[in-house]
Amino acid sequence: MPIRWYGNGDTTDPRYRHFSRIVNFTLHAGVFAAVNSALWFIQTIRQPWSHLDRFSELWLVALLTHLAVVLRRRPIENADSGES
User: Fold this and answer.
1) FRET label pair with 57: which of 20, 35, 49, 50, CA 20 to 30 Å apart?
2) Torsion sign over Cα 57, 61, 66, 70
């Protein structure tokens, strides 16, 4: 099921900001996967690029750091708010 936000976006709403961070992370992960798979494919059909592994590792570290930031800035759900 696709991720959806129902209603108008309010940039002061913490849940909306968290949703925005999740969408940005998924875009980052998608670009990472597409670019890295394309570069590794091109490397296999042409001559090797000696720094491709380092490039991929550094970008993966950046992606995991992005994930850590998204998880750390997650809004705390209030148990007695009564929302479902």
Assistant:
1) 20
2) positive
Residue 61 has pLDDT above 80, yes or no: yes
pTM for this prediction: 0.78
Is 64 part of any domain?
Answer: yes
Q: Is 82 left (phi over 0), alpha (psi -120 to 50) or beta?
A: left
CB 7 within 8 A of CB 18: no
58 inside domain: yes
Structural domains in the chain (count):
1
Give the domain range for residue 25: 14-72
Token output for 28: 């980052």
Dihedrals phi, psi of 37, to nearest 5 degrees:
-65, -35
